[in-house]
Amino acid sequence: MTIANPAFAIAVGSGIAMAFQGAVNSTAANAIGLWETTFVVSASGTLLAGLGLAAGLNGGGLARLGAAPWWSLLGGPVGPLITIAVAYGIRKVGAVNATTAIIVGQIGTAAIIDHLGWLGVRPIAFSPVKILGLVLLAVGARILLN
Questions:
Q1: Distance CA 86, CA 102 (A)
Q2: pLDDT tens-digit profile of 42-73?
Q3: Torsional sign, CA 42, 46, 122, 127
Q4: What span, in angstroms and rounded, lies between the C-alpha atoms of 46 and 42?
Q5: 117: which DSSP letter?
Q6: CA distance linking residue 105 with residue 90, whole number of Å
Q7: How many Å apart are CA 63 and CA 108, to the nearest integer?
Q8: Of 9, 8, 46, 38, whose CA–CA distance to 21 is shortest?
Q9: From 18, 38, 74, 89, which residue has the greatest number of CB atoms within 10 Å?
Q10: b/e burial code for range 116-139 (CB count within 10 A of at least 16 → b)
Q11: Any idea where the domains of the chain sit in the sequence?
């Protein structure tokens, strides 16, 4: 897999959107409350997803919902918890510190998921070079968090 892969550009865009979302959610939470913000974020996301389905942007079908493993649908209830945690973290420690902690947690967990092939992903072995990358990430995170 190379950096020229369009999936990387989409992932970078996702990261940019996540940083934006965390900051605006934190501001909204200061104004209307953490749970209220989470409700508005979840409701508006549900509306947008519904509009996408109505516009024919679906690739499967809700009729096949029962074919999905039960645990594969946990992203729904986990989403609001993530929204709450990110908005809270940014409010308390700032965008860079919270995002650094989030990224370290994400990459560490993703490395385990990839290596073990958990949650339906194709196993990707974790090499010594990738372990070095995790160590360097941790060092960089420590520098950012000082």
A1: 8
A2: 999 999 999 999 888 887 788 888 999 999 99
A3: negative
A4: 6
A5: T
A6: 15
A7: 35
A8: 38
A9: 38
A10: eeeeeeeeeeeeeeeeeeeeebee
A11: 1-93, 95-146
Q: Which helix (H) or strand (E) holds 109?
A: helix 95-116
Question: Two tokens at 89?
Answer: 């973290």
pTM to 2 decimals?
0.83
Q: What is the pLDDT of residues 2-20, one digit of tens each?
A: 667 888 888 889 989 999 9
> Taking a C-beta distance cutoff of 8 angstroms, is the pair 133, 118 a contact?
no
Place of tokens 């372990």: 131
Residues 6+ away with beta carbon under 8 Å from 26: 86, 87, 88, 90, 91, 95
Residue with tokens 């729904």: 76
Say if residues 40 and 28 touch (Cβ distance below 8 Å).
yes
> Would you tell me how many other CB atoms lie within 10 Å of the CB of residue 141?
17
